[in-house]
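Possible regression after last week's pipeline update?

I re-ran a chain I had predicted before the update to compare outputs. Posting the input and the new output here so someone can diff against the archived version. Not blocking, just want to make sure nothing changed silently.
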Amino acid sequence: MKFKNQHFLSFVTLFVFILGFSFVKAQEMPSAGPIPSHLISNQLSQKNVINSFFDGTGTTAFAFQTYPTPTNFVTFPIPGYTTTVVGSHTFTDFASAGAFAPNGTFFLTTVGDVSGTSQLYTVDTTTGVPTLVANMTGSITAGVNGLAFDPTSGIAYICTEDTLGTINTATGVTTTIGPLNNTGGLMVKIVIDDDGHMYGIDLGTDNLYSINKSTGQATVIGPLGFNLNFGCGATFDRVNGVLYLLGLDGGSMINALRTIDTATGTATTVHTWSPTLSQFAPFDLYSNISTEPSMTEIHFPQYMQGLNGSNNGRIPMAYFVELNGLTPGATYRYFNLLDTVGSPANGAGIIMFAEPSGYRYSSTGNLSNPDNYGEFTADGSGSYSGWFVSIPSGNPARFTPGKELTAVICLNDGAGGTSIEHRLRSTQTVKVVNWGTTPSDPLQGSLFWGQSTNGTDKNVIMLYDNVDGTGRPISSALIENIGFDLTTVSSILPEYRTNIATQSGRWGTIIPNNLPNGIRRLEERELVSGTDAPGDLVQFITEPSGNWNGVANTVNPSNGSAITLVYNGPLPVDLISFNAMVDRNNVTLNWETAWEENNDRFEIQRKVTGTEAWVTVGSVKGSGTTYEHRSYSYFDKNLVSGAYEYRLVQYDVNGNNTADFGLTGSVMIGTPENFKIAQNYPNPFNPVTKIDFQLPIDAMVTLKVFDLTGREVAQVVNEFKTAGYYSVQFDGSSLASGMYIYQISAGEFIQMKKMLLVK
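New output (post-update):
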């Protein structure tokens, strides 16, 4: 073809040049990862170094410098900004985010861009040596861009480009909260201020967002005012109230520290580095480390027993908490009491120290006398989890019915000191009620006790008014024999001393008379068990009516301390493991029991994460009564892409639903890596067969059946489908026996296979 004039040819040449340039720019999409090498080469030719004035209170940052090689952990002061190398390290995947936990441990996440799985590390900030905690499991396993700790709760939050979740920093197990509704964006960092308010920085839209921590709902605040691109770091200086962003301008390719106005989103440059320090992603401030230990309630009852003046009806109350912000590896002395809300005092009550060998009684707390204090040792991250037990005294200022009390744990300095250095107070309260026979009286309670023939002495029973064990327990009890003879303590409830104390397997507690649902679930939890963490669930049993064995009716009871609410019976199944394995779009569930009593079957139930409806997908026969280990499996096939939850519902031989066991976390069915259509099954078939296929992308799909002459005889699928795994049935009842061809078309993918119909 010839052009009529040279001007037109020049125009076309210019057009092609512009189109080619635009194409190159279009490929430089916003990225939460490392800087592409060709841009690094360009950036190295720049010579810009800008120091800006900053008048805030100084602090020190810890960060991971992701370029140049070698990649280093560094510190730098604000202001000042001169970096000091702490240590060098190279990660397989891009190091995406980092944050100090309240106890001072620095956690680092990776994206999973090479390995396919995001990882969680701790980093020694004095040497720069990282330690792998875990490959992330649960509902979020890859693409983690952001990490932030909430100073108001200690919860660790993570984000991908479109999802908000939480992570257990001890195990790497993640849980999805909800989608970040910033359509078309790329949420790359989350930060949390001193009041617990969460902000999100979106690299795709270049906006600052406010994020609802409960739902993931993101609300735009305003534009950053520059083209943020590639991996970046962000944190909130909780001392000075400043949101910092460490990131590159995608236009100039200059790395800068900026402050972000949380009211408008506007970014202001504080300092820019030379090109040799071109990228940081994991980044936080030492000033964000909490210097005061804190308490988080894990299993904390709603009710306990108490009485005005002299109290001769006392029974123990156990609670389980996690203590953070301790000195890693330090051994602390402690005693625990109960106090009124807002009081600065130590509190009152009798103490039973929970120790591996059992419980130890003390009528007072004192950090200089070994008889009056307990000890525990903080782990390597400065945390401790364990049981604490209090018994009410006759103190009328605290144990008057109707009072709301907080738990107070008094600690020394962790270095052998004898004075109180920390008083940790629970945020939840326990309500005091007294023995009484008035139905539905909110200030009176009744004795509920039982015998567990397979319970373990010294373990703890938690009682719930629902079958799922959600929310806070109503009350708690210790399984006797506890290692201390309460029959000799005259102030302990007489009925407890006579019928429960020192008698193996027995337990007793107070439950409020105002209890419309009754007690519907009993849980046994470990005191300690070898290398396992204390507090683990051992076994449980449910009674949806609240009327146990038809004789112990716990709905709005009115027996006071009389021995009438008695439940004698074992928990039906001791489930010691329950896990899932994923193979493409199939899930294999495996579980094991230590023993079973009258166990008829397990029903397997599944639901889509984020929905409420459980669906029964199968059943596995139980082993009746056995005191030997039993292993079970169930194969759930051909699931579509998404997140799923599973639970086992256990039934006894009489058809009663006596227990259910939930799988920890969600099971993720991802999208395939390539197109594929499987051989039909069965083959030969008569007249129905199944055809499986997979799509790595969303596509218009047709699946047709042809005879050997090429004539179309059936159309099985003709619709748009999202990426994932699919299974369809083909019914050949209207066709004659013979060989047929089935063909799938999805985008540019076309494939055919043969199948044989035999009638």
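Follow-up from reviewer: compared with the archived run. The chain has five domains: 1-29, 37-288, 294-568, 573-669, 676-757. Marking as no regression found.
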